[in-house]
UniProtKB/TrEMBL annotation:
Classification via Pfam families: HTH_1 (PF00126), LysR_substrate (PF03466)
Residue ranges of domain HTH lysR-type in the record: 17-74
Family designation: Belongs to the LysR transcriptional regulatory family.
Alphabetical keyword list: DNA-binding, Transcription, Transcription regulation
Protein name per UniProt: LysR family transcriptional regulator
Stored PANTHER family: HTH-TYPE TRANSCRIPTIONAL REGULATOR LEUO-RELATED, LYSR FAMILY TRANSCRIPTIONAL REGULATOR
Length: 310
């Protein structure tokens, strides 16, 4: 079988396949949703459905089967994804790298708001020193892994500061540092003051970060294991700042970074709970596309940020 034949298993059939459908396939695969794929491609859901029907006819396979609100991929679709995923990323980044980048006028950053308190001070200084005319656009991280993933894939972000690595062939995930986490309480908490044992904490209600990122989920599972109880969750929020506000206004216990707790101790009237429980640290990664390093500005910024946190 020739290379041309091996692409689809049918001689000459690749000529009949609209290669835009490969992008459509990957977006439906990643988001498990026709509507989300349509949103990313800026087309109607009907157009995506029609494209899927063409792919189904081409491959003679259903590819995706509805399971509740999600589309589950068939075994054949899984094989297609494994075959094209890395190449798809490489083609996108190589094509985008052909765009003029010598005089980049804007740096697009995705970063959780609370991390920006510690990331932006060195970042802004570095950008100002390297390219004073370069503007910075910050998009807050919404705690959804799929959103940050597609932002790098489609170059809506140059750098993402994230709590987990992006394990893709076309990306670099550089560990900047580890965030120490602590329990926090309102200073006027009726039962917890300076120190609390695991038994005391197991009887309290908690405010937790609402996130689908595995690094956050792992920490929450570890805390449950070390308290030796499934915590009673009273509040959930996708914002670390909201967690601090909720803790200060109630008798719940929260978990945030020590740096943040110390910074807002007086402003929000909160205190750190010292305990015999060891909370796992959370890593902070700087994530970017490999091909973006061809841009001198990006390479200088990345190198300087690595030096800053080494």
């Amino acid at each position: 079988m020739t290379k041309r034949q091996s692409l689809t298993g049918q001689p000459g059939s690749i000529a009949k396949l609209d290669l835009n459908l490969i992008t459509l396939f990957e977006l439906v695969y990643r988001h498990k949703s026709v509507a989300k794929a349509a949103d990313v491609m800026d087309v109607t859901a009907s157009a995506v459905s029609q494209g899927l029907n063409r792919l189904r006819a081409h491959f003679d396979d259903p590819l995706f089967v509805r399971n509740g609100s999600r589309l589950e991929s068939t075994a054949f679709a899984e094989n297609v994804h494994r075959s094209i995923a890395d190449s798809f990323e490489d083609v996108l980044t190589q094509l985008q790298s052909l765009s003029p980048t010598v005089a980049q006028s804007q740096l697009n950053i995705i970063c959780p708001p609370y991390l920006s308190l510690f990331i932006f001070k060195p970042l802004v200084r570095i950008v100002a020193e390297i390219s004073p005319q370069c503007k910075i656009l910050h998009t807050p991280d919404d705690n959804l892994e799929e959103t940050t993933d597609k932002a790098l894939t489609f170059r809506k972000a140059d750098i993402i500061f994230d709590l987990q690595p992006h394990n893709m062939h076309s990306r670099i995930s550089h560990l900047l540092y580890n965030e120490e986490l602590v329990f926090i309480r309102a200073k006027n908490h009726p039962r917890i003051s300076g120190f609390a044992s695991s038994d005391q904490l197991s009887k309290e209600q908690f405010t937790v970060l609402n996130s689908n990122k595995f690094s956050v989920a792992n920490v929450q599972d570890e805390i449950n294991a070390r308290i030796n109880a499934v915590r009673d969750i009273r509040f959930r929020s996708g914002s670390t700042f909201s967690i601090i506000a909720m803790v200060s206004a109630s008798d719940t216990i929260g978990v945030v970074s020590r740096n943040l707790a110390e910074m807002f101790s007086d402003t929000f009237d909160i205190g750190i709970v010292e305990t015999d429980i060891s909370i796992p640290a959370v890593p902070v990664y700087m994530v970017y596309n490999k091909f973006s390093l061809k841009n001198p500005l990006m390479k200088n910024i990345v190198d300087r940020m690595v030096e800053e946190f080494t």
